[in-house]
Structure formats: structure tokens, C-alpha cells
Amino acid sequence: MPQFNPGDMGACSTSPDQAVCVYCGSRSGTQPAYLAAAEEVGTALAQANWRLVYGAGDIGLMGQTARAAQNFGGDTFGVIPTHLLDAEVGKRDLTRFIVTQTMHERKKVMFMNCDAVIVLPGGAGTLDEFFEILTWAQLGLHAKPIILLNTDGFWQPLVALIDHVIAQGFAAPSLRELFRMAETPADAMGMLRAHFAQTG
Fold first, then answer.
1. Average pLDDT score over the chain
2. What is the percent of the chain with per-residue pLDDT over 70, rounded to a whole number?
3. pLDDT for the residue numbered 57
4. Distances in Å between the alpha carbon of 44 and those of 128, 135, 189?
5. For the purposes of burial, counting CB atoms within 10 Å of the CB of 5, is it exposed (0-12), middle (13-18) or buried (19 or more)?
6. By mean pLDDT, which of 40-54, 76-90, 109-123, 161-175 is the weakest?
7. How many CA atoms lie within 13 A of 68 on its CB side?
8. Helices and strands counted in the chain (H then E)
């Protein structure tokens, strides 16, 4: 089993055109639309020849996204910490399966091996991932696109919270410009295509 090595960060093969990190829940949620959207995202990434980078789990929205990408021959890059191998059912049949020692290493390897991020519905872990990369963007540490996939309005309360933070003077209005909302997987893919076309 491959173990974490700092040299792995950024060590993607050149076959996929781009790499997209998908943050999402290790649970399926209460609405069938969440699983359907995850499947559509995984399928669309594979069809676009974009690598899926994700948390290497085989359950919940994570597993659904990865299996969909695999079903269409997509390149899959999974990163999971040792302590979650059992809880998240590490998906060992990925194109690349990396085991890290800590959550911090996991998130760093995932982020450094992607060109863009899509955030699907999820829980505290997904929120943690989103706010970390949003903060990094706010600090000017990266300019990768961040897209919230707002399936069935899932992220509306989060956006309302961010707007409240801005309104109360704890962030500049520019914070709202550091991420985009997509209502459907097709919308998200369109945003990414436009971005990649501009950046080459």
C-alpha cells in the first residue's frame, strides 16, 4: 500500500487534461438527489478526461462519485489517513491510492494535486475542507476555482452565513467572489470548462 511521501504532492500523471478535487460527505444524506448529483459529477469528470481527486472513501457521496468515474474509465486519485481506512472503507482499486498519517497531510496532498475544487453536500469534514481552501484563497495563497454544488438548495444556509459574516464586518465583500454556486453538475462542469479554456 503506498504511504504518504512529500514527493507525492504534485506527482500526477500527464494523461488526464485537468484534475478536479471533489469534497463531499462520507454519508449519503437524506435526499436521493445528493447521490444522483455525485454520480453525475463522477461521470462528467471521467467523460471530460479530468482526474477525480477525492478522499478515497468507498461509502456515501465519496464512493458514489468514485464508482461513477471508474465506470466511465476515469482516472481516480484517492487520499485517506490511516485512522479512516476502516471507517470510510478505503477504496483500494483507484488509479492511485495514497495513505497518509494525518488529516492535515490528506488535505494538503488532495489540494496540491488538483486544479479546481467542487464541493458537494457533506458534513463537518466537508465544511472544514471548504473553509480551509476559501481562507487560503482569501489570503492570496491560490487562485483555483471553488464551486459549491447547490443540490436541492443544500448550500443556501452556508451562503447566508457567509453573507452575514460580511455584513457584520468580519470579512470583505470580496470573500463572496472567491467561490461560485452551481445549481447542477452540468452547471459546475460548464464553469470549469470556461475556466480551463481561459487558463489553458
1. 92
2. 92
3. 94
4. 25, 28, 7
5. exposed
6. 76-90
7. 22
8. 6, 7
In order, the DSSP letters of 37-50 are: HHHHHHHHHHHTTE
> Residue 50: phi, psi to the nearest 5?
-110, 135
What number is the average pLDDT over the span 146-156?
98
DSSP 15-67: SSSEEEEEE--SS--S-HHHHHHHHHHHHHHHHTTEEEEE--BSSHHHHHHHH
- 99 with 110: CB under 8 angstroms? no
Give the Å distances, CA to CA, from 43 to 101, 124, 168: 30, 25, 40
* Domains of the chain (ranges, CATH numbers): 17-199 (3.40.50.450)
| Ranges 5-19, 99-113, 174-188: which has the least confidence | 5-19
DSSP 149: E
